[in-house]
Give the backbone structure.
Amino acid sequence: MVTVTTLSTPVHTGGQEDTERACQQAAAQLKSIAEMVEWLTHARECIASGCREGCTGGDGYANTEEYHDEEAAREFLTDAPLSVEVRTDWHVVGAVEAAKPTHYRILLCWGGPAVQIVGTLDDYNQPDSAELQCQDWFTEWTRCPTTHKDEADLMTYATAFYFDA
């Protein structure tokens, strides 16, 4: 005689609450990205316009002096993610040119919830797209809604990274 036992513990499959929590985390990450991009953009513009004297900038990430330092802004921005990864498409062995990266991923936070930026790379290994995605436990990666300004900030953020193999 064979006895069949079934599990009585419900299996969590993710739901609306998980998606909402993941979207809230993505919004928080996007806010941080916008602030970092603002700092980087301000530092670049200050170099070009010479606004450093008399400017009282600073945004919580940097003091007034650092707020005008493009290298400090770029370093802070590139140190923020957990990982930056690239991948390539399938290709035949020995096809060196085909082994160039074609896609990237910037993992901003992981666990429950997790947030990442994914996109494709152009022929010069520079991002030509950026999509914000989030997920929570037992859910698929989901594209987060963004505005045109958000998309511009994501592209500025992504282009600050070096994607050559």
